[in-house]
Design a protein that fits this description.
The structure is a single chain. The model has no long low-confidence stretch (mean pLDDT 93). The chain is of the alpha/beta class. The strands form three sheets. Strands 1, 2, 3, 4, 13, 14, 15 and 16 form an eight-stranded mixed sheet that branches. A six-stranded mixed sheet has the order 6-7-9-10-12-11. Strands 5-8 form a two-stranded antiparallel ribbon.
Length: 386
């Protein structure tokens, strides 16, 4: 019986110091992974920045990333079949930056999904013929400064209602459905509970594999109802001047289906990546063994409800000071982290208790949360015009 090999990778941001490396080395930045790409029937990456010469950024929190449109040819020549655009950086250089990106991909007949000129184009899946299989790929992203609307360009949001209908409507007209999700908490290897619930739900309604990126560190995976869910592939190519722990590690995930659309095998392909090594280096021997042990340990935590809940709660406690500061402290400036010990004392004091109760109620009540969100959005837009 014939089999079909599908390969998925994580965040590809060929910017900063990687710009010069790609200009000089081209596909060599992917190292021996190019062999794996070309041995696969389908290969996917998440393009974590627009390909544009634009200099007009959107007002946002965090860095604005971009790479030249010539990077599209490197993606094509390396052997990737499809590019995901649903992420929090794809709109960094406004709608024109996104349009320039899709034009560069179109010029090379590179398929892409997850972003577009409006919400309808952004949410549409890619339909591809892979060997004897017709597949559909949806790409969605958590909402930051990137989401498309009825009239504005951007990325596809995680709209569970729309995604459910789209999956149900397309299920009978294709053999396999894959979803990639740009979501999770940065530098935290585990999925938040809501993301874990979402991914399992999508498998329940007929998706054949789910692959997540955004945390920038490798995370666990599970085989749920005989289908793969990978919760964080880590970075594929992404520079950082002071990389946090796990930043330079990642893995490609290969899933193999037979003619009956059953998953018959999978493979984890770990690697490291850095500017110093001029790209990606596949992990071998002891390094590969140690990485797989690490991922298997994460998998064990994920699948044990008590261990998983304990892990998530400990993460929330560790980051409480940052969350409180970002939510309540009115100012942002370089060195604000030095105030955390003082702010922690204030937030834990009796003086602040009633404020935390009030804020909790605002965030857990859908109507209150929507009011806060809309008020802040209108205020930010109004300030940007002044």
């Amino acid at each position: 019986m014939n089999t079909h090999r599908f390969l998925f990778t994580g965040d590809f941001a060929p910017c900063r110091a990687y710009s010069a490396i790609l200009e000089d080395s081209g596909i060599e930045v992917f190292g021996e992974l190019t062999t794996e790409l070309r041995n696969s029937d389908f290969a996917f990456l998440n393009l974590e920045c627009p390909l544009t010469y634009s200099t007009l950024t959107v007002p946002k929190d965090g860095p604005s990333l971009k790479a030249p449109p010539s990077v599209a040819r490197v993606i094509k020549e390396a052997g990737f079949s499809c590019v995901g655009l649903a992420n929090n950086h794809i709109l960094d250089f406004q709608g024109n930056g996104l349009i320039e990106t899709t034009k560069a991909l179109d010029n090379l007949s590179l398929m892409y999904c997850g972003a577009g000129k409006d919400i309808w184009e952004a949410s549409a899946p890619v339909l591809m013929q892979v060997g004897s299989k017709k597949i559909a790929i949806f790409a969605v992203s958590e909402s930051e400064f990137n989401i498309a609307s009825d009239t504005e360009a951007g990325a596809a949001p995680i709209d569970v209602y729309k995604l459910t209908l789209d999956i149900i409507n397309i299920k009978n007209s294709c053999d396999l459905i894959f979803v990639t999700v740009h979501g999770g908490n940065e530098f935290y290897e585990m999925p938040r509970p809501g993301l874990k619930k979402l991914c399992r739900y999508l498998i329940d309604i007929g998706v054949d594999g789910i692959f997540c990126h955004h945390p920038h560190v490798p995370g666990p995976f599970e085989i749920y109802k005989s289908k793969p869910i990978v919760y964080s592939l880590g970075n594929l190519i992404f520079d950082h001047s002071k990389p946090p722990e796990g930043w330079n590690s990642g893995y490609a995930f290969v899933v193999i289906f037979n003619d009956d659309n059953d998953m018959v095998d999978f493979e984890v392909i770990p690697y490291t990546q850095s500017v110093e090594s001029k790209g990606l280096v596949l992990s071998k021997n002891k390094d590969k063994e140690n990485f797989l042990k690490y991922i298997n340990n994460l998998n064990s935590i994920l699948l044990n409800d008590d261990s998983y809940t304990k892990n998530w709660n400990e993460y929330c406690v560790r980051n409480a000071d940052v969350v409180f500061t970002k939510t309540f402290f009115p100012l942002k400036f370089k060195g604000v982290r030095k105030l955390y010990p003082v702010l922690k004392y204030i937030y834990n004091s009796r003086f602040f208790r009633s404020k935390k109760i009030e804020s909790l109620n605002s965030m857990r009540c859908e109507s209150h949360l929507e009011l806060i969100k809309t008020s802040l959005e209108l205020n930010v837009k109004r300030n940007n015009k002044n």
